[in-house]
Specification:
The chain is 42% helix and 10% strand. By secondary structure, the chain is α/β, with parallel strands linked by helices. Strand 6, helix 10 and strand 7 form a beta-alpha-beta unit. The structure holds zinc ion (2 copies). Keywords: Hydrolase.
Amino acid sequence: MSQRGDGGDGGRETDGSPAYDGGPVAALRRIAFLLERAREDTYKVKAYRGAAAAILPLGAEAVAAAVEDGTLTGIPGIGASTAKVIEAAVRGETPDRLARLEREAGPLATGGRELRAALRGDLHSHSDWSDGGSPIEEMAFTAIELGHEYLVLTDHSPRLKVAHGLSAERLARQLDVVDAVNDHLGGSGFALLKGIEVDILDDGGLDQSEEMLARLDVRVASVHSKLAMAKDAMTRRMVAAVGHPRTNVLGHCTGRLVTGGRGTRPGSEFDARAVFEACVEHDVAVEINSRPERRDPPTRLLELARDVGCLFSIDSDAHAPGQLDFLAYGCERAEAAGIDPDRVVNTWSRERLLGWANG
Ligand SMILES: [Zn+2]
Ligand SMILES: [Zn+2]
């Protein structure tokens, strides 16, 4: 029996299960990653992430002892299915659930592989400080595992209350946490960058104080309200936001939803040529939002932005660690649209990116 991935050469087998030497925490995290990547509902994933967090502080010996004594499910956060995973991993066997998910986990996209390989990071991600499902450090660890050199943490701004948008005070606290995470990861070559997905207000202003915006590395500005605004007003609103001196990326420009649990909705109406010309004028990147339910901008607009001469940012907009892998979808679309990789800002080095975003 052969084994996918990097869990060993599969040479040793016990009771027919391929060998696994990653340990129980890695097995649980990998299962969660693969479920998130496959767009499973968060509640299914939570058990695995919760179980990993529950056993991590106990240490390998205590976990092995609990397996030996049959007391695993007595540990808060461990249920029957997560216990099975832990037991197999402690015995050095690949957990069945993990083996099945690895078998099912093919590439997310067929095209765009060269572009994906050229990406060095991701400019749009959420943690559990706003509406994401995982702590900041888990997003950072997973970004490192994916080979990113940087990840911009872009939690929501205050007005988006349904998503627990961050007040200026909470954002200031978050920046201290980002510093602490980077200190902890010192020497890894990876950097968690400070960012925001700031709401574009009705008049085109940005929903965060100038002082806080100035403290960030990268700012993504997005429309999340009044998406059905009249075309002229929406154009003025977006052009104003793009012209804000702190704006770096125009997030999911139409706001459309094409599939998924939140239902579908048409995109906002605006003069796309005027908005994209403003992006060129103000050196703002048009986001290619990789979320499968967004696919934003639509192909017609993506090609218009290409012809107008825009920069692009291919972003995951991940709300869970496994969703950081969604970049593959955006790369496939960008390549199909014939977009030159050097016009994609996240193919740039961190230095070049930061120079551009704060120039
Ligand atoms: Zn958004
Ligand atoms: Zn977002």
